[in-house]
Amino acid sequence: MIPLEFSDEPNVIAAHKEFIAAAYAQGDDNDEKPIAEKRAIKQTRLIYEIAHSLGFGIRETDLQTEGYTATGFVERDHAFIDGHKAWRDIANLLFIQARQAEGRPLNEKELNYLGLQGAREEVSDDTG
């Protein structure tokens, strides 16, 4: 709702776009800490810009040092995201199983979509 509520506040809109980009950034396990730090910085800036546009006399540094997020909300959000990823994984597995049942191997485009780039062998059914 931020783009709707603050459409006439260019600083809020810019901060929102930067936060969304940071929120969707992904990397490997080695990159997770810098990505999380950047996400937190962009979130702080967004909150600051919203508070500033609403007339609150708060400093951005106050948000960085005195901010609080309930652990329960963070855990809930992570569980929500993990649940969505699980649905995607289930759909992919069902697709692979359907292809196996038809006796058709996955083509290169499908392998790429499933994140199996370069896999030359069809996923085998170990049940015999």
What does this structure look like?
The longest helix is centred in the C-terminal third of the chain and has 32 residues, at 71-102. The N and C termini lie far apart (52 Å). This protein is mostly helical and 128 residues long. Residues 122-128 have low confidence and may be disordered. The protein has helices at residues 2-5, 10-23, 32-53, 60-66, 71-102, 108-113. The protein is elongated and about 65 Å long. Helix 2 packs antiparallel against helix 3 (32-53).
From the spread of the alpha carbons, the general shape counts as elongated
Count of individual helical segments: 6
Instruction: Determine the strand fraction and express it as a percent band.
Output: under 5%
**Estimated radius of gyration:** 21 Å
Q: How many beta-strand elements?
A: 0
How is the main sheet built? none
Low-confidence stretches: 122-128
Q: What is the H-and-E element order?
A: HHHHHH
Q: Gap between N and C termini, in Å?
A: 52 Å
Q: Which class do the helix and strand fractions yield?
A: mainly alpha
- The average pLDDT value, as a whole number, equals 83
Helix content: 55-70%
